[in-house]
């Protein structure tokens, strides 16, 4: 990966964050079951929600439970706080030489996330991660605590509306205007998708609108990919030479058309071109008279 190792790894961490948090919520999710024994005693047992035959944090579930806690404590929470509070850390840790030296090792990672943002909004990637948490909890717990699908869609729409409103209030968090436009475009389409899913009752109509919005996402992603591919290839000499050759060939193909249109003159136009007009005679006589 070379010099792109840090951005690539940072992107992989960001892409795996959603799936990782959802898996942790599923692993840590439990249910309480009340058992009525034959001797008229009542006992409460904690079971794993995904498999009621497994006791919670015991036996087979103990390893998953411990690993989920370790990942939560040593990766998810520090990673989220790291992205959310990095402007605060960078400002106040610079007063301490030892901590500032340690913080400088993490700056390439921060720049991979917050580089496109303006300096006062470098917390934006962390805020987007925090905005995912209520949605992830709703999706993971939809079968137990949240029975209504409309409630889930309303929560997702609320989160999207808040993020979109904050982005508008800040006047754009990215340095480049195109990045602000793309973020608003994706959030707006996602709001439309969620809103129509909650408003329409027929599954066929919901599926049609879902496919339309998904197609818009895919087309936009393909255009972004092609644009970045063009930027990467533009630094290569062979790609630049190929472009020049194609444009040069196109110009050569266009020139004969112009020559043909100019050469097809009528007989009268050719005579006029050969015989000078009266104004030319007047101009010549006036020049002779001067001498």
Automatic annotation (TrEMBL):
<feature type="transmembrane region" description="Helical">
    <location>
        <begin position="62"/>
        <end position="85"/>
    </location>
</feature>
<keyword id="KW-1133">Transmembrane helix</keyword>
<feature type="transmembrane region" description="Helical">
    <location>
        <begin position="181"/>
        <end position="200"/>
    </location>
</feature>
<feature type="transmembrane region" description="Helical">
    <location>
        <begin position="123"/>
        <end position="146"/>
    </location>
</feature>
<keyword id="KW-0472">Membrane</keyword>
<feature type="transmembrane region" description="Helical">
    <location>
        <begin position="152"/>
        <end position="174"/>
    </location>
</feature>
<keyword id="KW-0812">Transmembrane</keyword>
<feature type="transmembrane region" description="Helical">
    <location>
        <begin position="206"/>
        <end position="227"/>
    </location>
</feature>
<feature type="signal peptide">
    <location>
        <begin position="1"/>
        <end position="23"/>
    </location>
</feature>
<keyword id="KW-0732">Signal</keyword>
<protein>
    <recommendedName>
        <fullName>TRP C-terminal domain-containing protein</fullName>
    </recommendedName>
</protein>
């Amino acid at each position: 990966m070379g010099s792109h190792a840090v951005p690539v790894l940072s992107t992989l961490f960001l892409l795996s964050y959603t799936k990782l948090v959802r898996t942790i919520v599923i692993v840590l999710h439990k249910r309480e079951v009340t058992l009525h024994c034959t001797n008229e005693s009542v006992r409460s047992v904690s079971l794993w929600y995904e498999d009621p035959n497994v006791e919670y944090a015991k036996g087979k579930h103990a390893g998953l439970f411990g690993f989920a806690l370790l990942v939560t404590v040593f990766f998810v929470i520090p990673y989220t706080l790291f992205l959310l509070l990095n402007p605060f850390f960078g400002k106040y840790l610079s007063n301490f030489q030892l901590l500032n030296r340690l913080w400088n090792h993490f700056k390439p990672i921060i720049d991979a996330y917050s580089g496109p943002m303006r300096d006062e909004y470098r917390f934006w990637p962390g805020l987007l991660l925090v905005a995912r948490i209520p949605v992830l909890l709703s999706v993971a717990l939809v079968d137990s605590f949240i029975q209504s699908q409309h409630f889930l869609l309303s929560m997702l729409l609320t989160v999207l509306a808040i993020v979109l409103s904050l982005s508008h209030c800040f006047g754009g968090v990215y340095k480049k205007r195109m990045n602000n436009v793309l973020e608003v475009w994706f959030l707006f389409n996602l709001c439309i998708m969620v809103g129509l899913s909650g408003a329409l009752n027929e599954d066929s109509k919901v599926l049609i609108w879902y496919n339309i919005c998904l197609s818009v996402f895919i087309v936009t992603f393909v255009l972004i990919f092609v644009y970045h591919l063009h930027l990467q290839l533009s630094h290569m000499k062979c790609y630049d030479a190929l472009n020049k050759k194609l444009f040069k060939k196109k110009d050569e193909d266009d020139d004969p058309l112009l020559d043909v249109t100019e050469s097809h003159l009528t007989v009268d136009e050719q005579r006029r071109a050969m015989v000078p007009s009266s104004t030319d005679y007047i101009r010549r006589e006036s020049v002779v008279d001067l001498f």
